[in-house]
Amino acid sequence: MFISTHDLVRKHGPLILGVILAVSVGMGLLFTPAGSLVGKGQQQRGGLPTIKGKPVNFAEFQSIRNSILAGIAMSKGRQPVRGVAFEDNLNIEAVQHLLLLRKARELGIRVTDDEVVQQIRALPIMLNELKQFDPNNYQRYMIFLNNLDISETLFEEVIREELVLGRLRSLIGSAAEITPAELQLSYNMLQEQTKIDYVELNAADRKDISNVTDEDARSYYGLNQEKFRTPAMVKVRYVYFTISDARKSVTLGDDEISEYYERNKSKYVDASGQPKPLADVKDELKQDLLDLRAERLAGDRATALTVKLVPQPGAPIPDFTKTATDAGLTAKETDFFDLRSPVKGVDAGPTFNQMAFSLGPDVPVGDPVHGKDGYYVLAYVDSRLSEIPAVQKVKTQVIDQIRRQRAYDATVKQGRELDAKVKTAVAAGKNFADMCTSLGLAVKTSEPFTLVGGATNLPYASNIREVVLGMATNAVSDFLTTPNGGIFFHLKQREAPKPLESEPVRKQLEAQLLQQNREALFEDWANSVMRAEQVDYKRRAPVPQRGSPTDQPAPAEQPAPAS
C-alpha cells in the first residue's frame, strides 16, 4: 500500500523535506515576490509601498527600515552593500514587518522595557565564561555597534521588534497540530529503503579539441571579464610572540594559585557539582593558570612592540625590522597574498589577512593578531589593487575556459538525449541496465538509502533523495545537471520501513513536524494579512528567474588594501 501512495508523496514532499533540512522560515522576505507585494497597482516604481491604495506612513515605515538594516549589520558585522535589488527587498520586508507589528498590537502583544533588558543580558555575546552577564562585554559590543552607526536606542528597538514578532509567530503557530496519519506518512517517507541504478556523465571525460579563434576568445572574455579579475593583494612583515616562549618566563606563587582557585572554584567540581579541594586539583589548576599567564604575557609583549612602532608626530616612521631586532626577534616578510588565501608560514586564520588588508602607508602597523600559539604583529610593506587584466595576458586561461564550457555543454546535451532514449526504452518494458550498456554507458548500483541517510557511495545524494520522493518504482529520472556534468537514474527498488515503535523517534519526529506546521501556518496567515491589506510595491530591479545566472551567489566582497 505504501509503495503506491505517490500522490501523497508529491503532496507532502515539501513538508518532509522541510523537516529533513530543518528549514525554518525567517522573518526576512517571508512572502513570495509573486504574491501581493509585487501586485498590480500603478504607483511609480521605487516609490513607497501602498496599503489599500494609500502610501504607508513614511515615519513608521522608515523607522522599521532602520531596524531591519541594523539587524542585518549586526548579523554580518558590517553595513550591507546597498544596490537597487537590495533596496527593493528591504522595502518589501519593511512593509511586511509594519503590518505584522500592527497585528501584534491588535492582538495585545506587548514587550516591556524589562523584558528587552533581560533579552539583551541573555545574549551569548554579553556573557562571560561563567555564562553570566558581563557589563564589559556589553560596553565592548556598544562600541562595535557605534562603529556600525547603530545607536544603543536602535539596538534596543531591534531586540524589541524581534521579541514582538517572535511572540506573534508563537501565538499564530500554536493552533497547528499533527495528526497520527501525518506522523505515520512522514515516518514512512523518511525511513523507506530505496535502491537505484544510475549513470553519471563527467565533462572531464570529454576532451574538447575544437578550434578556438581569437574572435571566440575576445568575445568570451568580453562577456566574462570578472572571471579573470585578479584579487587585491598585500605584502607584510611580521614577528610572532609565542605563548610557548612566554611560558618559560612565568612563575607562580602559592598565593596566586590559591587566589585563582577561590575565583574559579566552579570550574573544578566533582560529579555532584561541588568544588573539589585545592589539593586535588592543584596540578590541573596550576597548568590552567600558567597557560593563562603565558598567553597574557605574549599579548603584552606584542602590544609593547606595537606601541614602539606607532609613528610620533613629526618623527620618521620607526623601522620595523630594526625595532624587532632590538627586541630580540627576527622579522619575516610574506609574499603577496589575497584576502582569502592562507598565508604561508602563518597560523592565525582569516584574522591575519583581515588585519593585513586594513594596513597601508598611513597606518603601517595594526593591533596584535591572535594566532594558534601567540600573537602576530604586522607591518605594511606593499599592495596591489584588484584589476581585470588585458585579454592577451590571460588568453591561455580564456581558451581553457571556453573548451571546458564547450565540453560541459556537450556533456549535458548528450546526457539529456541519452536519458530520453533510456526513459522511452524502460517505459516500453526494456531493462534499464541492459539499455544503458547497449549505449556504452557504465551503470552503477547504489547501496540502499533512505531520505535521511545511507548509501555512502551515492553521488549528489541530497539532489537524488529529493527527486526520489515523487517517483514511482521502475521510473527513470530526468537528467540532473551537476557541477561536473550530470546524472540520471532508475528507481530500482522501494522497501517499506519497519513499524514506528521507538517512542524517542516518534517524539522527535512529532516535534519536527509540529514546528514545520507552525511555520507553515504562520506563513499562510501572514500572507493572508498582506492580501487583505492589499499591499503593493513596484520593484525597480527585475526579479531573477529560477535557473538564471543571477541566481548564483555573488562573490563575497573583497576590500582593496589601503593605499
What does this 3D model show about the protein?
By secondary structure, the protein is of the alpha+beta class. It folds into 3 domains: about 30-175 and about 535-550, Triger factor/SurA peptide-binding fold (Orthogonal Bundle), CATH 1.10.4030; about 195-230 and about 390-495, no CATH class; about 235-385, no CATH class. The protein contains 17 helices and 13 strands. The chain has a 4-stranded antiparallel β-sheet with strand order 8-3-12-11, covered by helices on one side. β6 and β7 form a beta hairpin. α2 crosses α3 (about 85-105). The longest helix is centred in the last third of the chain and has 33 residues, at about 395-425. The radius of gyration is 31 Å and the shape is globular.
Please outline the helices and strands.
Layout: H1 6-20, E1 50-51, E2 54-55, H2 58-76, H3 84-106, H4 113-121, H5 135-147, H6 152-173, H7 180-191, E3 193-202, H8 214-223, E4 233-242, H9 243-247, H10 254-263, H11 278-309, H12 320-326, E5 332-333, H13 350-358, E6 369-371, E7 374-384, H14 395-427, H15 432-438, E8 444-445, E9 449-450, E10 453-454, H16 461-468, E11 480-482, E12 485-495, H17 503-532, E13 535-536
Antiparallel strand pairs: 1-2, 1-13, 3-8, 3-12, 4-5, 4-7, 6-7, 9-10, 11-12
Helix pairs in contact: 1-7, 1-17, 2-3, 2-6, 3-6, 4-6, 6-17, 8-14, 10-11
- Tell me the quaternary state: single chain
How many helices?
17
Strand content: 5-15%
List low-confidence stretches.
Answer: 1-45, 545-563
CATH class of the largest domain: Mainly Alpha
Shape: globular
What's the mean pLDDT score? 85
- Tell me the CATH architecture of the largest domain: Orthogonal Bundle
Structural class: alpha+beta
Helix content: 40-55%
Supply Rg. 31 Å
Q: What is the string of SSEs from the N terminus onward?
A: HEEHHHHHHEHEHHHHEHEEHHEEEHEEHE
Distance between the termini: 71 Å
- Taken together, the total number of domains comes to 3
Question: What is the CATH topology assignment of the largest domain?
Answer: Triger factor/SurA peptide-binding fold
Strand order of the largest sheet: 8-3-12-11
Largest sheet: 4 strands, antiparallel
Count the E strands.
Answer: 13
